[in-house]
Design brief:
Elements lengths: L6 H22 L1 H5 L4 H14 L4 E4 L2 E4 L2 H23 L10 H36 L7 H11 L1 H15 L13 H19 L1 H10 L13 H5 L22 H26 L7 H4 L1 H18 L8 H20 L4 H6 L1 H23 L6 H11 L4 H11 L7 H11 L1 H11 L9 H24 L10
Antiparallel strand pairs: 1-2
Helix pairs in contact: 1-3, 1-4, 3-14, 4-7, 4-11, 4-13, 4-14, 5-6, 5-16, 5-17, 5-19, 5-21, 6-7, 6-8, 7-8, 9-17, 9-18, 11-13, 16-17, 17-18
Length: about 475
């Protein structure tokens, strides 16, 4: 049995130990309740502290051996791929006709345009920040860390880390041409920016939500009291809220077994696809196979779900259970990502790091707030959804929506889901063909101009549709 205790399994043991600690602290500490800080984020920060004090490890014959930060980084990447795969399984479901109302369409278009423009805001502010700091101080810090911020804020720590690993792996590949060798500092800064993005979503987003309620900007102002279970993060005794439905008879097979089986099937064919790309594509782009494994996993999972749909077996997949399994991956991923942060690297970047976070937070606030006032009804809800999604994740958005819409009457969460697919077309070129080849074929300057194009184009679209009266809602804001 001793032989099976690989570093990754031990790392998962530590994550499991920290999980209930975060749950307990969220239940007991009002500060965490006030800002709706997820228990996984609390556990992750505790784990990060313990890791940097060399207290996370395993006893051996040679004494206490601390775990390597890279162990948690690799786990984060693996869980992130599973996360995107489950997103694909959910995304492949049949569309429903209820999403055709004009108001939902208007909201989806607004969310899509402003979120893509949010990428532009982050790049136009963040990249000059690191350039300016290096020019003034001569510190020579890695300029690619500005893209860590962009990826960390818009996609979370795991996505940012995945791209950072591609850059570092490419830098160490002698067979590839290099514009410059990207420093391994990006591995730490990717996770750090992603984690701080969650904090911004919570500590800035929650006060903004409460401000909107006080000013009666929310669509439903009749009951904005958040229940105790939501604040404490623990359901009351006797709660029987379902986490899914049985699609298989328990006497035959557990329903959750089928869903994990779908995950395994998706992983298997994703690995085959990635291996084919690695061996068949030209050397200068072959890294896109395993490097973007999370993206290919999502696409393959969509195909598998479509096969179930086409064969009349879609009813065997429970979307609520898929959502819950995905939530498990997000919780574990948040903790492993934070536990891969090394303070020694962060210390070098602390000044531009703080400056960048403050400036982009202000920039995102005005970018989303001003056009949200053109919407009339649901303007506050759409502002909160995109502000939280562009600093944390869509899960952060749903937390804020629970504050302003505790009865769940708003269609904005559904709009946010639809907008995730609308944004694939404008974001795909940067995500698949520009950002992964940073340091090989593209430079930070290229990404800066990409951000300018995004920001200018989205600004023009917003103003044009405003002039045409498209944003006008059922009531003026």
């Amino acid at each position: 049995m001793e032989q099976i205790l690989s570093p990754y399994l031990v790392a998962l043991f530590w994550v499991c130990i920290l999980l209930p600690v975060g749950i307990f602290l969220r239940k007991k500490i009002p500060f965490f309740q006030k800002y709706l800080v997820p228990s996984s984020l609390i556990s992750g920060f505790i784990g990060m502290i313990l890791m940097n004090l060399d207290l996370i490890g395993i006893p051996t014959a040679e004494g206490w051996v601390p775990l390597d930060f890279k162990t948690f980084a690799m786990l984060t990447t693996l869980i992130f791929t599973a996360n995107f795969t489950m997103i694909g399984i959910n995304a492949g479901k049949s569309t429903e006709g209820g999403a055709k109302s004009k108001e939902i369409t208007r909201g989806t278009i607004w969310l899509s345009i402003t979120f893509v423009g949010g990428y532009g805001v982050l790049m136009v502010i963040g990249i000059p920040m690191i350039w300016g700091y290096n020019a003034i101080t001569g510190a020579g810090l890695e300029s690619a860390t500005a893209m860590n911020m962009v990826q960390g804020f818009t996609g979370g720590p795991a996505q940012a880390l995945t791209y950072a690993q591609i850059w570092v792996r490419n830098s160490n590949n002698a067979d590839l041409p290099h514009l410059w060798n990207i420093s391994s500092d990006v591995l730490v800064m990717a996770v750090t920016y992603g984690a701080v993005g969650f904090l911004v979503a919570a500590f800035v987003g929650v006060p903004l939500a409460n401000y909107g309620i006080r000013k009666k900007l929310a669509m439903d102002t009749t009951n904005t009291k958040v229940d105790d279970a939501f604040l404490h993060g623990i359901m009351p005794k006797g709660s029987n809220e379902s986490i899914g439905r049985h699609t298989l008879h328990p006497g035959n097979m557990e329903t959750i077994s089928l869903h994990f089986g779908l995950l395994g099937i998706s992983f298997f064919f994703t690995w085959i696809a990635c291996y084919i790309m690695k061996t068949q594509l030209p050397k200068d782009i072959s890294f896109l196979g395993f490097g973007l494994m999370f993206m290919w996993g999502m696409f393959i999972a969509i195909i598998i779900r479509k096969v179930f749909n086409a064969t009349g077996n879609e009813y065997l997949i429970d979307d609520e259970l898929v959502h819950r399994i995905n939530g498990v991956f997000v919780d574990f991923m948040m903790i492993t990502a934070l536990m891969s942060v090394e303070w020694a690297v962060l210390g070098k970047y602390i000044v531009p790091f703080i400056g960048t976070v403050v400036l982009v937070t202000i920039g995102l606030f005005f970018w989303f707030w001003i056009p949200s006032r053109w919407l009339g009804e649901s303007g506050l809800e759409r502002f909160l959804v995109n502000f939280a999604a562009c600093t944390g994740t869509l899960a952060s958005s749903l937390l804020l929506m629970r504050i302003v819409d505790p009865k769940g009457k708003s269609f904005v969460p559904a709009e946010a889901g639809f907008s995730q697919f609308m944004m694939i077309i404008p974001i795909a070129p940067m995500a698949l063909f520009i950002t992964p080849v940073l340091g090989i074929k593209t430079t930070v300057t290229t990404l800066f101009y990409t951000g300018v194009i995004y920001l200018v184009t989205c600004t023009i679209l917003l103003l044009l549709l405003k002039t045409l009266g498209y944003w006008k809602g059922t009531s003026e804001g």
